[in-house]
Each structure stands twice: as structure tokens, then as C-alpha cells.
Amino acid sequence: MVDLLLGLQWGDEGKGKIVDVLTKNYDIIARFQGGPNAGHTLEFDGIKHVLHTIPSGIFHENAMNIVGNGVVIDPVIFKKELDNLDKFDIDIASKLLISRKAHLILPTHRLLDAASETSKGKAKIGSTLKGIGPTYMDKTGRNGMRVGDLEFSNWKKKYRALANKHEAMIGFYNVDIQYDLKELEEEFLEGIKTLKKLQFIDSEQYIFSAMAEDKKILAEGAQGSLLDIDFGTYPYVTSSNTTAAGACTGLGVAPGKIGKVLGIFKAYTTRVGSGPFPTELFDKDGETMGRVGNEFGATTGRPRRCGWLDLVALKYAVQINGVTELMMMKADVLSGFETIKVCTAYQYNGKTIQHLPYNIEGENVIPLYTELKGWAKDLTKLTKADQLPPALNDYIAFLEKELNVPIKIVSVGPDRLQTIYR
Ligand code: GDP
Ligand code: IMO
Ligand code: MG
Predict the structure, then answer these.
(1) Is 12 noted as a catalytic residue in this protein?
(2) Which of 53, 56, 46, 45 is nearest to 20 (CA)?
(3) CA of 347 to the centre of ligand 3 (A)
(4) Among 33, 113, 116, which Cα is nearest to 73's?
(5) What is the 3-state secondary structure (H, E, C) of the chain?
(6) Residue nearest (by alpha carbon) to ligand 1 atom 20
């Protein structure tokens, strides 16, 4: 069976931390979509690690880590990630396997991302500029380069043709993008050299065999449900299916083989980049969440926008993914708020609705809040569920009732050990 761990909001829910915490229970950790737009943070033994492409199980001896076919890999960023792991005693060559069918992000994909964003002006997506959109466009347009191509001698010819086409496309945008392709290509070739030191596999076959041997597999999502290309706040989304279905196509797992669906959310909401965010706060409360929660993007360093929990959106994510267990992160950040607000409905065109309408932009949607009592207690040193303050227990009970799914983990700090099981 394959369990899934998915972000239910706009990303950065704390997926990296929880995958690391859960890896002891699994034989394989597999990423199934996204690429270096992701920034997954793990913290233990006083050290903070940020991973972009490498699955968050890499620090554990017991687990194999797979980069699945649905992922897009930038060899340049990948090399940097591996270099950062050099000082730790990890046998990368035997513990990290790469799907031949994963697509490659070329330097010109990154340039195209920048050209597209610049040309959009104020309407830009706020992409991470990692080339994600253009790479998935080449994948679905059937023009992409895959990891498996690197095993054939003509890959450089293929690369040249695609890069030349991209250069012409950059011209069409008619924007001022400065670049030195020669320099970028040198870096790219270095990255490919490093990538080629790893084992390339037919990852779906590997996973079939692992399932036949009853191995336990955890699929690690990137981004979050509201950034899903189909179900997110389009066009302000990423270019992959971040929801449960993405694990089927991104790893080759049949729907019937999916076990638990673990949904992870923050006790409040954040978003980085452009796009609608009904519960966004522009006041002192939002500023406090950002400061206490240290809400800066793990990939781009941009400040994250902050707001109260949006239960309408969260319910939608629970439904789309078929979530069976929930994990609430960053409960510690809400300590000290006298009142906790939860958006339980929207006012939309003069009506009260409890579902996500087609367009949640701007004035369209006004969040309606239910207020709960806050708690003052510092949670960061707590280790057991019976130590949680009554007001937090009430908050949890309220959410469980509304969502009809149990909250199994409450996270009270970034460290591995700051994790409370219920
Ligand atoms: P991911 O993309 O879902 O893996 O999440 P990120 O790593 O981008 O962002 C989550 C941030 O919150 C990281 O800086 C984590 O170290 C931190 N974090 C995770 N869980 C908690 C928590 O319970 N409390 C606090 N204060 N920080 C947390
Ligand atoms: P993790 O896995 C938060 C956002 C970008 C932008 C939009 C499109 O760390 O949760 P893209 O570069 O994918 O074309 O950007 O999606 N975005 C993320 N926001 N966490 C992420 O990943 C994200 N990956 C992309 O900010 O708004
Ligand atoms: Mg992140």
C-alpha cells in the first residue's frame, strides 16, 4: 500500500517536517510531482535542512528515497542540494533513486519563466522562477527532455534543438531578460554530471516490486491543494496536480493501492506569490503570525502572506483528496491570541455559501468568521496531548467536527521532537 502526505492549503504547511517524523515507519519515501519550486524544511539536532527535489526521508537509514516520474528536476539545483548533504554521512548513491521518466528543467525553461512573468506585469503569477511552468508545458506539449534521455548519446543534440527553440520563444515575449546562456549551460552540464552518478530506474516497476514485497511506501506531496493545476485558484497555481490523483500519475500507483491519505494544514493560513486569499490579514494579527511563525519562503525567501484558517477551503481540500487523517501544524504560533477566528462560510453575491465558488478573487468573496477563545500557554515544550490547553482542545474539537476527520498530530515547533500524537 502507498500512503499519501499532502498539503491542504497553499503550500508550506510543514510537509518536510512530518515526512521526516514519519519516515521511521516506511521503507520508501517518494516525491510524485513538483520540482525545486518546493522548499521542505526539516529540523533536528539543532540543524535546519531545506530540501527542494530530494525526498524528506533522506536522513533516515531505513528508507529508500525516490524521485518519481511526475517530478521535474533541475540538475543545477539538484547538484547544490547534494553538495549541501556532503557533510552528512549519507550513502546517497544507494539511497536515492531517480525515475527515468522525470522531466528535466533546462536553463532556458527558467528564462522562459522569467520572460512570461515579466510580460504579465501586475498580473504575474508570482512564480518561484524555477522554470516549473515552461517545463510542464514541454511535457504536455510532448517536447520535453527526460532523465532517461541522458542514457543515450544523442541527448546533447536534442538539448540544443530545444534550447534554440526556447531562445526564439524568449524573443517573442519582447521583454528585457539579460542572460549568458554559455555560462548557464556550463552549470547545467556540471549538474548533469552529478545527476548521472545516481541510479536511474523505471520507478513504477520498482514500486510494483516493493508493493509485492509488502513494503511500506509514503508519497510526499509538494505545494498544496489550492495550488493544484485543476482544483486550485487558477491561474494562480502551479503546473502539476498537487492533489491525491497526482500520486497515481506521478508514481504509477493504481487508485486501489492507496492506503491512508494524510492531510496537513497550518492552524492558520499562509500564501506566497500572487492570487486570491479571502482570509488574508493586513493588520497586527497578520503581522504577528508572520513574525512568530517566521513566515518566509523556504525557496525564495519572500515573506508569506498570513491570515486566519479558511475552513471552507480546507473542507474542499479534504474532499478532493479523500483525507483520512489530519495533522495540524504551527499551533504554537497562535499562542497569545485572545480570540481565534475561523472562516466557516463566505458571503458571495449577497448569499451565504459554504463551498468554494469558481472565482474567489477580490471583492467577490467576504469571509464570515466563527470566533473561538484563544490560549496564552507556550506550547513549544509540550510533548503529550494531555498537556494541551483546554482552549486549544476546543479549537481542535471544533475543526474535527466540521471536517469530520480526526486530527492525529499537533505540531508545536519546527523540531522533529516538537510533535504531539493524539
Ligand atoms: P513544507 O513546504 O510544507 O515542507 O513547509 P516549509 O518547510 O516550506 O515551511 C514550514 C516552516 O514552518 C518551516 O520553516 C518549518 O521549520 C516550520 N515549522 C514546521 N512545523 C512547525 C511548527 O509546528 N511550529 C513552528 N513554529 N514552525 C514549524
Ligand atoms: P512547498 O512544496 C508555497 C507558488 C508560487 C506561486 C505559484 C506558482 O514548499 O509547499 P511555480 O514556481 O510553481 O510556477 O509558482 O505557486 N508555489 C509555492 N508556494 N510552497 C510551495 O512549495 C510552492 N511552490 C510553488 O509562490 O504563487
Ligand atoms: Mg515549503
Answers:
(1) yes
(2) 56
(3) 30
(4) 33
(5) CEEEEEECCCCCCCHHHHHHHHHHHCCEEEECCECCCCCEEEEECCEEEEECCCCCCCCCCCCEEEECCCEEECHHHHHHHHHHHCCCCCCHHHHEEEECCCEECCHHHHHHHHHHHHHHHHHCCCCCCCCHHHHHHHHHCCCCCEHHHHHCCCHHHHHHHHHHHHHHHHHHHCCCCCCCHHHHHHHHHHHHHHHCCCEEECHHHHHHHHHHCCCCEEEECCCCHHHCCCCCCCCCCCCCCCCHHHHHHHHCCCHHHEEEEEEEEECCEEECCCCCCCCECCCHHHHHHHHHCCCECCCCCCECEEECEEHHHHHHHHHHHCCCEEEEECHHHHCCCCEEEEEEEEEECCEEECCCCCCCCHHHEEEEEEEEECCCCCCCCCCCHHHCCHHHHHHHHHHHHHHCCCEEEEECCCCCCCEEEC
(6) 414
Expressed in angstroms and rounded, the spacing between residue 297 Cα and the centre of ligand 3 is 6
What are the two backbone dihedrals, phi and then psi, of residue 258, each rounded to the nearest 5 degrees? Answer: -85, 130
How would you classify the pairing of strands 72-73 and 407-411? unpaired
Q: What are the tens digits of pLDDT across the range 168-213?
A: 999 999 999 999 999 999 999 999 999 999 999 999 999 999 999 9
First to last CA, the chain: 23
pLDDT digits (tens, 9 = 90+) for 117-159: 999 999 999 999 999 999 999 999 999 999 999 999 999 999 9
- Mutation pick for ligand 1 pocket among 56, 292, 295, 329 (CB with most ligand atoms within 8 Å): 329
Lining ligand 2 with CB less than 6 A are: 7, 10-12, 34, 37-40, 125-128, 130, 132-133, 222-224, 227, 238, 272-273, 298
Mutate to test the pocket of ligand 2, among 41, 125, 223 (most ligand atoms within 8 A of CB): 223
Alpha-carbon distance of 353 to 346, in angstroms, equals 5
Global pTM? 0.97
Instruction: Dig out the grid coordinates for 207 from the structure.
Output: 514500486
